Amino acid sequence: MLSRAASSASRGLAPALACLGSRQKHSLPDLPYDYGALEPHINAQIMQLHHSKHHAAYVNNLNITEEKYREALAKGELLEAIKRDFGSFDKFKEKLTAVSAGVQGSGWGWLGFNKEQGRLQIAACPNQDPLQGTTGLIPLLGIDVWEHAYYLQYKNVRPDYLKAIWNVINWENVTERYVACKK
């Protein structure tokens, strides 16, 4: 019985690894039978313990591992390009924040990809001017600095908004855009 279970688990691993790109978490499946169904050979208490504690821990650890893997992907190739083109992530963050803070009135701060040079660049666009149409850069990350994006919470203190925005950037999406535009 254990060898069949082990075989089933290894076959089930491939679909689990294939879904790494999705954000849906795994959940503990219900058993197709009652905990007491294997009595008297295996009692209900053992089945409940193994299912609700041990199996649940495996599912939880799989979710944690996949999240760490997604974070590592986002930091891998893109992070290397950021270090190459800006010196470090901190220097990149400082520069994009400064460019975004310097937009007069309304507009956007951008991280874009210069396909001709194969490099990342930072730019700002006033108002609704599109990044690619005005600079030729392929948009990877845009920071909206129109007042409507932050005024209700940050009032006219754009630097506080720009400090906070780094906590909600979807690096997985930025990485996907970076990888796609390099092709």
From TrEMBL:
Gene Ontology cellular-component terms listed: mitochondrial matrix
UniProtKB keywords: Metal-binding, Oxidoreductase
Gene Ontology MF term list: manganese ion binding; superoxide dismutase activity
Binding site residues for Mn(2+): 50, 144, 148
Pfam families membership: Sod_Fe_C
EC number: 1.15.1.1
SUPFAM superfamilies hit by this protein: Fe,Mn superoxide dismutase (SOD), C-terminal domain (SSF54719), Fe,Mn superoxide dismutase (SOD), N-terminal domain (SSF46609)
Cofactor(s) demanded: Mn(2+)
Stored PROSITE patterns: SOD_MN (PS00088)
Domain Manganese/iron superoxide dismutase C-terminal: 75-177
Catalysed reactions, as listed in the record: 2 superoxide + 2 H(+) = H2O2 + O2
InterPro entries referenced in this protein's UniProt entry, alphabetically: Fe/Mn_Superoxide_Dismutase, Mn/Fe_SOD, Mn/Fe_SOD_BS, Mn/Fe_SOD_C, Mn/Fe_SOD_N_sf, SOD_C_sf
Family: Belongs to the iron/manganese superoxide dismutase family.
Subunit structure and binding partners: Homotetramer.
PANTHER family in UniProt: SUPEROXIDE DISMUTASE 2, SUPEROXIDE DISMUTASE [MN], MITOCHONDRIAL
Name assigned to this protein: superoxide dismutase
Originating organism: Prolemur simus
Lineage: Eukaryota, Metazoa, Chordata, Craniata, Vertebrata
